[in-house]
């Protein structure tokens, strides 16, 4: 059996049913193996798209994603997607080609030190040294994806290793389900009891449900936790959608107030990075608890009163059970605290509502994201890809089901939208996929709209078009004045609706806010990949853009 076929066997054993790829002479034997193993091959127009799609596939399915690219520029093109998966804690394997071992250090076509380049942005990076080891090392790479918090691995496979054939009895082919142990931990039982005590005694607790709540598929455990113990919940990243928008414990706009006034703050599956002000946004008077899959994340950038390393679902379930065993779990006494937060939430919503309903022209971005939020159904997976326009959406758009929010994550990578659409629609053909792009973000990977058409992966795409990289433009104006606010950030007025139609999709141009919803409905009815190009006011900025400290 050839090395390429051994790769395919190892992928199949891991449960991989699709690879995202751009072809190259170094890797084609993997394709041949995938055909024999029944693994789909989705070929894209840029390797960055392949890597992002593998990341997106992992997020949607809970299984590891896989991208296969050729050597040299094929692998370097995929670096951004791998780096994004690292910061987003997404399990994926990138396989890159390499020149033949017999030509090692001789200057073969597309030869680069891939492993050295990939080591800092992966959990595991290696060269496969012999055909007999191919399946074994592929399996090893997948196993390392799940060490601590999930993340990406990288393998380069020299061309002669991949093409060579070996007797099956000489090749180690791990058995499906027999090469990985469970990584789920419920934490130290003593710490579970201590957290239960803290919750029972807290008058004003709150919990932030981060991306690991979805990574761990801990939705049910999180819902039981907040309802049983009457704890108000905020959500970020892939944790959005854990609670439905109308759930009495679901809050969004009162987070700053809660973090400043709570006596107990529980942070689940979210690092104290820039999104959390490196932990400085939490009251210094509050008791702070952090729950995370990765020991290195707990207590990083900010002291915590209690840190628990473990699976979000198991930890939350154990705490719920421990607290429920008390004579009084404290839930009744927290009614006033929830009412206080709800009043703050309502006031913030009502203050913003006139802009969400604005009929101004050019279109207020708040009106656009309001229309999108109203358009979503419980079956809609929402994807955000952009700067300023997606910052608006983060305040307004509320996914109606768990696992139905996708954004780049903390690396802040633009261009994830089209590949995330590709992955989501492939993995969940029954789901509706709705994506909001900034015009700058879409242009980075937008040519793979054609791939969506070619593979019949319909979605509803919306571009908030201000012909600018507007988040950066705002910062330049603040630093250097209006006279230099248009340097290096202004784009052409591109009619993306026409672009979509040119590539075989559905497209419209929208300049009147009253036309947004009808255009979205027509895109839904078209059954095609679509782009509704909405021209928004370029001189309006999201509060999150204006508050970024890098501009101050």
Notes on the protein architecture:
By secondary structure, this protein is α/β, with parallel strands linked by helices. It has 3 domains: 3-170, 3-Layer(aba) Sandwich (Rossmann fold), CATH 3.40.50; 189-343, 3-Layer(aba) Sandwich (Rossmann fold); 358-547, Thiamin diphosphate (ThDP)-binding fold, Pyr/PP domains (Rossmann fold, 3-Layer(aba) Sandwich). It has 23 helices and 17 strands. Helix 16 (388-396) links the parallel strand 12 and strand 13 (405-406). Helix 9 (189-201) crosses helix 13 (312-324). It is globular and about 70 Å long. Keywords: Metal-binding, Thiamine pyrophosphate. This is Acetolactate synthase. Its cofactor is Mg(2+); thiamine diphosphate.
For the residues shown, what is the average pLDDT?
94
* CATH level-4 homologous superfamily of the largest domain: Thiamin diphosphate (ThDP)-binding fold, Pyr/PP domains
Sheet with most strands: 6 strands, parallel
Q: Roughly what fraction of the amino acids lie in strands?
A: 15-25%
Query: Structural class of the helices, strands and pairings?
Result: alpha/beta
Summed up, the helix count is 23
Given as residue ranges, the uncertain stretches (5+ residues, pLDDT < 50) are: none
The total beta strand count reads 17
The level of helicity is 40-55%
User: What is the number of domains?
Assistant: 3
CATH classification class of the largest domain: Alpha Beta
> What is the end-to-end distance?
61 Å
**Strands of the biggest beta sheet: in what spatial order?**
2-1-3-4-6-5
Per CATH, which architecture of the largest domain? 3-Layer(aba) Sandwich
Question: Shape from CA axes?
Answer: globular
The CATH topology assignment of the largest domain is Rossmann fold
Oligomer: single chain
